[in-house]
Design goal:
Layout lengths: L2 H32 L4 H29 L1 H19 L5 H27 L4 H28 L1 H4 L1 H7 L2 H9 L7 H5 L7 H8 L5 H22 L2 H7 L4 H13 L1 H15 L1 H20 L4 H25 L9 H28 L4 H22 L10
Length: 394
């Protein structure tokens, strides 16, 4: 299979994943009005999704080292696609939460497995660039979610938007026909070891420093991302803009994700992973500060666009950097566990924001928390990280 075809297949799966995550933020803003949800309930819904992602990243990451990248990639796509369709039929908030947990499992498992599959297939000198381009499909998914929300939810309701998210289920079935597994997995010695052994290996002496760095980095990035971006439409409504106007402004901010990815795709093989991660994380922190303190629409939209640019660029570098820390025999487990550890941040972030909003905490104070968290992640990379630019995977 050609490199472009593999990137397209994995990228479309990534895009559908992003569409589902993105549409949740708009659906929650609509549900808050339709079902009369409190700020705490909105935050809890975002956290339930992240709990599912944490469980999925951990379990499916372990499974990928046993059953193969391709098999797990297809299973996770089916899980979140079918779950999205069923959630459109939810008649209560409790049932909606249960389905969001299942969807989250699929979402959380698919991302690290897809990046591992592509990492193990492309050449070292362009691996970073290709992984960032894979991540750029995330922006396409968010743009699709914003467009769906802007044109579908106000006229046809949130259920219609969720039904559209079932499309990946048919795509996943199509994947079975032609997607090969990664060459490294096919060559690797197949081991039957316990989950406990896999966890111990990731924290073994050769990888302890790398694992600590990744877990801190993933926690800080996921905490800030899901805390900020799941709340963007709701924050706009809180600042006095209508639901439709909020969707419109968030769509404009989302468009800035694409140049963020493309700039990192260009930089990552020239400047290296560490440099790109640190610069884009610091850019995210500065943007978060100005967004939280914005006192006019222009400042709000411009700082929100820079927030999208730097934050999603950092995500691209993160997915390129993570699989490079481990040898092939434990790469799925190591990447999946790092992503799973990060999902603790995705659980805590929305819950914390829901609690702070309910207490009347100012937007500036809330976004200052994200600013600090992102800087801690950058510091972990600076102190504990090692450069992996153009290194051959073990």
């Amino acid at each position: 299979m050609t490199q472009k075809k593999l990137l397209g297949i994995a990228g479309l799966g990534w895009m559908f994943d992003a569409m589902d995550v993105g549409i949740l933020s708009f659906v929650l803003a609509a549900l808050a009005k339709e079902w009369g949800l409190s700020a705490g309930q909105i935050g809890f819904a975002g956290s339930i999704n992240s709990i599912g992602m944490m469980v999925g990243a951990f379990l499916f990451g372990l499974m990928a080292d046993r059953k193969g990248r391709k098999t797990v990639f297809i299973i996770t796509l089916l899980l979140f696609s079918i779950g999205s369709g069923l959630s459109a039929l939810a008649t209560s908030f409790g049932l909606f939460l249960c389905l969001r947990f299942l969807i989250g499992m699929g979402l959380g498992g698919e991302l690290p497995v897809a990046s591992t599959l592509v990492s193990e297939t492309v050449a070292a000198h362009e691996r970073g660039r290709i992984i960032v381009l894979l991540e750029s499909f995330w922006a396409g998914g968010w743009i699709l979610a914003a467009l769906l929300s802007y044109f579908v939810i106000p006229s046809y309701g949130w259920r219609a938007a969720m039904m559209i998210c079932t499309i990946p289920a048919f795509y996943a079935l199509y994947l079975r026909m032609g997607l090969p597994d990664s060459p490294q997995f096919q060559k690797a010695e197949k081991r039957k070891v316990s989950i406990f052994t896999q966890v111990v290996e990731v924290w073994g002496k050769p990888y302890r420093k790398k694992t600590a760095m990744l877990w801190i980095l993933w926690f800080c990035v996921v905490f800030s991302y899901y805390g900020m971006f799941l709340w963007l439409p709701s924050v706009m409504v809180m600042k006095g803009y209508s639901l439709i106007k909020s969707f419109e402004y968030v769509l404009i901010m989302t468009l800035a994700q694409l140049p963020g990815y493309f700039s990192v795709a260009w930089l990552i093989e020239k400047a290296g992973r560490k440099f790109v991660l640190i610069v884009y994380l610091v850019g995210t922190a500065i943007s978060a500060y100005f967004f939280g303190n914005a006192d006019s629409l222009n400042v709000l939209v411009i700082s929100g666009a820079f927030l999208s640019f730097f934050n999603l660029g950092a995500w691209g570098a993160l997915y390129a950097y993570t699989p490079e820390q481990y040898p092939g025999i434990m790469r799925g487990a190591g990447s999946g566990m790092a992503a799973g550890a990060g999902r603790f941040g995705g659980i805590f972030g929305p819950l914390l924001i829901g609690s702070l909003v309910a207490k009347g905490t100012s937007t500036s104070s809330i976004f200052l928390i994200f600013c600090v968290a992102i800087l801690i992640g950058a510091l972990a990379v600076m102190v504990l990280g090692t450069e992996t630019k153009q290194q051959e995977l073990q």
